[in-house]
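Request from the bench team (R.T.):
"We need a structural guess for the complex before ordering more NAP. Sequence and SMILES attached. Just send the tokens back."

Command: build protein-NAP structure.
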Amino acid sequence: MARVAVVGVGAIGGVIASLLHLAGRHQIILCTRRPLGQLIVRTPDGEIEVAATNLTDDVLASPVDWVLVATKTYDTEGAARWVEPLASAGAPVAVIQNGVEHRDRFASIVPQDRTLPVIIDCPVERHPDGLVVQRGSVKMNVESGALGSEFAKLFIPPDGWDERTSKFITGSLGGQVEIGFQNYTVTIDQTDDFLTAAWRKLCFNSAGALSALTLQPAGILRDPEFARAAADIVDECATVARALGAHLDPAIAQQVIDGYRAQPFDSVNSMLADRLASRPMEIDARNGVIVRKGESLGIPTPLNRLIVALLRAATPPTPPNASA
Ligand SMILES: NC(=O)c1ccc[n+]([C@@H]2O[C@H](COP(=O)([O-])OP(=O)(O)OC[C@H]3O[C@@H](n4cnc5c(N)ncnc54)[C@H](OP(=O)(O)O)[C@@H]3O)[C@@H](O)[C@H]2O)c1
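Reply to R.T.: structure attached below.
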């Protein structure tokens, strides 16, 4: 049995906790800012009540075997206060967030070789009453190697495979774990080219800013004018990515547009969800990083720069004494 702490139990943290619960052999510690009466995750197979200990004060945190961080990137400072004691005996830290700077965010407190960047795709939202609604399958991407393999194994049911499990392919390098439930799957891909995987996801996320700006769901990209704008935003991101060594498909912009168009018209991305809830947005992690990296490489990124400025202007001021 491993002691696994989840720091930040919103949409993604809720899904991760439910998967750990289904693995059935962990002591789960949910680290939150406010007490969590119960954690219910409504999956495509029905509701799961996660059996876990809840901590709300990082002073009470003690070393665990794995730390899984699932806060928004703008809450890194608060998350780090949990990570420090939880990982103080050498536990690896999986950073399950958007963007391309997972390691940098915790570099001052966790050695690089103990940090595992994780990219996740999952249609999920959290409701104000704490309910987490997961609408489909979970796809995660990690670097290949020992840490990636150990992370994937956390989600595997204990005694081999039961009727919920359809497939398990693994290898220390470039392996894949796929767990099949009745109406959804959980796939954990281990890739030798994580840089490309992370920037490909950022290409998708960069265009999502159009939703946050217009307060419109994914359907906005069915409009040809917005699709054209999205393509230009993605092209800036892809140019920076390629200069950094990512191998992106020449048709990445069209793939992003097709991806948004394949989503239900009313799909709300997490940046739009943040804006609608008057929370901060992951502006820097999703669009600001393209501007910053572009600047350092001499690549102009005027559209992403404009997006950053507009979204910052649309961000409600942080009330005095509130944590950002
Ligand atoms: N939602 C999606 O569909 C989706 C899909 C792919 C990737 N992602 C990425 O996954 C990451 C997590 O996103 P999310 O949608 O799960 O965010 P979320 O629903 O906003 O959840 C974040 C959680 O972190 C908690 N938190 C913040 N600071 C904390 C602290 N100091 N201590 C403990 N808990 C803290 C928040 O607590 P409060 O409840 O107190 O605010 C919240 O419950 C982001 O990088 C996001 O971009 C999300």
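Two things stood out. The pocket of NAP is lined by residues 7-13, 31-34, 70-73, 75, 78-79, 82, 97-98, 120-122, 124, 126, 270, 282 (CB under 6 Å). Confidence is low (pLDDT under 50) at residues 161-173.
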